[in-house]
Amino acid sequence: MITVAMITMNEEKAVGKVIADIRQAVPDAEILIVDSSRDSTPDIAEKAGARVIRQFPPKGYGKAMDLALRSGKGDVIITLDCDDTYPTEMISTLADMVLRQGYDLVDGSRLKEKPKAMPWLNYWANRGFALFASILFNRRVTDLHSGMRAYRASMLAKLSFDPNGPALPVELLLKPIKQGFKVSTIFIKYRERIGQSTLEPLRSAWWTAKRIIRCHLD
């Protein structure tokens, strides 16, 4: 079974479309949303058939993602941002790599080249941090912050990570690599988002560096 897990905060403009696209791509998947919205996002999601877990007042991205990853019923958990930036048509490909090819984690990298939807500053920051991590871990990584990945549920059960603070995807990629799990990367398209971004670039950059170093030293 596949679980598609998302976290949402005020995504009422996008959530209905994203759920419909997921249903078209993987009709039998469980769609799980951890929601911290003040708008109608959870109501739209439930009406569209998603299982919604409310986390309100908000506890931050990391704790919401932790809850989403550990609440899915599937053998593989596919993460996705609920802003229409990621290609739902790739869900089956990522899931197959876990369920049939034996990978524990598949990273959907946005950075085969610069996406038109990504500002240059974000692109070069992502490339720079990926290069830094590649050197420290002696393995090429290209996208530490992708919101589209496939995780084997049994791997997540064995994985410990710090859900506090930004940049959790960094740790969710580097810890499995360091611990010897079978990790792969495929390149995906990245589109313009629906709605406003809540990213805090400077805070995210600080936490990215902190998580890279901490994973290396653990």
Helical residue percent band: 40-55%
Identify the CATH class.
Answer: Alpha Beta
- Overall form: globular
Which fold does the CATH topology refer to? Spore Coat Polysaccharide Biosynthesis Protein SpsA, Chain A
| SS strand fraction | 15-25%
CATH superfamily: Spore Coat Polysaccharide Biosynthesis Protein SpsA, Chain A
CATH architecture: Alpha-Beta Complex
Low-pLDDT residue intervals, each spanning 5 or more residues: none
Mean pLDDT metric: 93
Distance between the termini: 33 Å
Rg on CA atoms, Å? 16 Å
Please supply descriptive tags for the structure shown above.
alpha/beta, globular, 8 helices
Task: Give a short synopsis of this structure.
The protein has 218 residues and is α/β, with parallel strands linked by helices. It contains eight helices and seven strands, in the order βαβαβαβαβαβααβα.
SSE arrangement:
Blueprint: E1 2-8, H1 15-25, E2 30-35, H2 41-47, E3 51-54, H3 61-71, E4 76-79, H4 91-99, E5 105-109, H5 120-137, E6 149-152, H6 153-158, H7 168-178, E7 183-187, H8 201-217
Parallel strand pairs: 1-2, 1-4, 2-3, 5-7
Antiparallel strand pairs: 4-6, 5-6
Helix pairs in contact: 5-8, 7-8
Characterise this structure:
With 218 residues, this protein is an alpha/beta fold. The chain has one domain: Alpha-Beta Complex (Spore Coat Polysaccharide Biosynthesis Protein SpsA, Chain A), CATH 3.90.550.10. Helix content is 41%, strand content 16%. It contains eight helices and seven strands, in the order βαβαβαβαβαβααβα. Strands 3-2-1-4-6-5-7 form a seven-stranded mixed beta sheet, with helices on both faces. Strand 2, helix 2 and strand 3 form a beta-alpha-beta unit. Helix 5 runs parallel beside helix 8 and helix 7 runs parallel beside helix 8. The longest helix has 18 residues.
